[in-house]
Protein 1
Amino acid sequence: MKKLRTAVIGTGFMGRVHLEALRRTEGVEVAAVVGRESGSAEKLARGFDIPWTADLAKVLEDSSIDAVHVCTPNASHYALSLAALRQGKHVLCEKPLSVSVAEAEELVNVAKDKSLRNCVCHNLRYYPMVQQMRAMRERGELGEILVAQGTYSQDWLLYETDWNWRVDPTAGGPLRAMADIGTHWFDMAGHITGLNITSLSADLQTFHKQRRRPRQQNETFGGKLLKDQDADLIHVESDDFASVSFHLGERARGTMTASQVSAGRKNRLCIEIYGTEASVAWDQERPDELWIGRRNAPNQTIIKDPSLLLAGAQRFADLPGGHSEGYDDTFKQVFRRFYASILDPDLAPEYPQMEDGLRQMKLLDAVLVSSKSRSWIDLPTD
Ligand SMILES: NC(=O)c1ccc[n+]([C@@H]2O[C@H](COP(=O)([O-])OP(=O)(O)OC[C@H]3O[C@@H](n4cnc5c(N)ncnc54)[C@H](O)[C@@H]3O)[C@@H](O)[C@H]2O)c1
């Protein structure tokens, strides 16, 4: 069978995660790694025995390459994805899709016009237990959804000496905690409940109005390892912390907070969905466990075991019970479905698409407007 050929653009944290997951995706071969820093990019590519290049145009002109993965800082997603789509490549872009609604709209339209497969990497949907929550809701086991609430907390930007390109709006966009991790939470809430945010009120806080930017470059989470060094003092406006109250669909309500300054919380996405029949709660730092709450029966904590999951969730669990499936595996689940849909044009896309990325950009826009105007903002219904 013909192997699909792909290229990975960006060789930092996500570049490696995508390369590893692609190695575990049947029927796909990585034809090129596109990087900017010859040293680190070349080293990464060599480790995987894949050619490295800084020449993206050449990769996009290569008609043997079917798709590209965009794994670079947010502000470059639009130009890189657009160039790839225009050259007829299917595009899998990291989140957030862009740094503005207009950019995201254009990407959605170009992908549609050219009938190309497109994905925005909201991989966190594909933990087996997140799929179990969705399957329970689809079967009506939760009843009518009343409340969604949760947090996404990290600590890697707690100190004023912590720095990453995400702090710089020219690379990360105007929002930080909300764009970087808040969008994952909202994508998951929508995926589980099947409801869209219809209105919101947001409050943002920047605890460090100034941060020390190291003169030496560092990758995501890499700042925690750096010691004393020369640094420039930089003015910061993006959110260290955000809280959002929202309306979900017509009747449901919710609140969430996103924080990158919560000591001890490494990557803690917690989500709780309360329905008229039952509740579910899940924590990304304990991904194989799902809490189920009932008013008139004992609560349960179930452990991931494909033989005990609902059919809709079983398809996202590759390993037997007791064999953990985690963050890395969620990428594999997305990639497998993305490439299957390239091979089979009749296959309905079973992964987040650029339209979902656009929905998140509209939400971020509303968060910005709301926090500035200190008011509730309605979101367009689609
Ligand atoms: N889905 C997830 O769970 C998840 C997790 C982390 C990051 N991300 C997203 O992945 C993207 C990358 O984040 P990261 O944490 O890997 O950052 P990173 O800083 O670790 O890596 C970024 C890489 O992109 C390269 N780069 C920058 N501009 C480029 C260009 N124009 N062409 C080629 N290479 C370029 C840099 O040299 C670097 O190697 C971001 O959009 C981020 O939001 C997603």
Note: The two ends are 39 Å apart (CA to CA).
Protein 2
Amino acid sequence: MHAFIPAEGSESFLIDELSRSGISARVLNSFTLTDQLPEPSILAFALQTLPNATVVTGASINGWADHIIAAMLVALNDDQPWRLHLWPAYGEGKAGQHRCELILAALPERLKKRRRSLLRSWQKDSVITQSGEALVQAVLTSPETGFVSAAPITEGLSAILSNHIAGYIPHAEDKAAPSRAFAKVVEAELRLGHQIERGQTCVDLGASPGSWSYVAIQRGAHVTAIDRSPLRNDLMRSPRLNFIQADAFKFKPETPVDWLICDIIAAPQRSIDLLLEWLREKQMKRFIVTLKFKGNDEYHLMDQLKKDAPPLCADFRLTRLCANKNEVTAFGLTAK
Ligand SMILES: C[S@@+](CC[C@H](N)C(=O)[O-])C[C@H]1O[C@@H](n2cnc3c(N)ncnc32)[C@H](O)[C@@H]1O
């Protein structure tokens, strides 16, 4: 069984999305459960996946530790680097957090007895998972119940396994940014594990009032921003910004750029076609593109992107970001 954490308010959209891949789903404690993973494994409305999850009931502190270890012994090789996401999904207070701390404290001693080598390969240093690592997850839906999952992060799973606990990334705040839209580009970078960097080139389509360009400029990138309206005055004066007042759908860079960032208000099919065209022509190395949906009956349009984009990409993601409302964001790395 596989368990998915739906993006906020997207439970029914996730069920529809799975059903369009021929997968039926059921719901338990706000988790969406299936017996199959979609192929390709891209789910816009799931923030996190617990592959091969088992249901835990009636577990004590030591019982939880043993369930986690049992899942690891099935899925992980000896010495395989792994990380643990352990979190409470119940209650408002600190009780759940405290119980997780107790489970965490019980784990090393019990793991030492069962598979000492895995104690040595536990990665606790950073949140960024590397290929070849495994992700071990345990979520408490009450003190005694929940799910555990352990899975190597294979290429096929990387787009639906988040580095962030429960797939959640808090809204970035920056009062100096022209608008709250800047949080979307920051969240997509975090999920992708690649940031816009100093000296890189960036095309920002549908750039006004300029939050995405603001992020890129702050990072030291050179931005070509295209919109019908100018950006905020201070950004327009930036030596790192080249503003072009034009139709963003007609713009192409003279030479390929490091980043395409695109937040045009347009029918989703137009943004999908634009992204696929840029990918086919290898106009950019990395991309972040929002798809803005007017109605829930338009989500099936993403299915074409799920089919056509992955072969053109080294890494392709499609996610309703925590900072998205009626949008879904496509982001990734273009194939070399
Ligand atoms: C959501 S806003 C972009 C916000 C921007 N990412 C930011 O963070 O400030 C969408 C922009 O798309 C622009 N837009 C819509 N259609 C366009 C087109 N065909 N060509 C250029 N810009 C367009 C609008 O003028 C608007 O400024």
Note: The pocket of S-adenosylmethionine is lined by residues 178-179, 181-182, 206-212, 226-229, 247-249, 263-266 (CB under 6 Å).
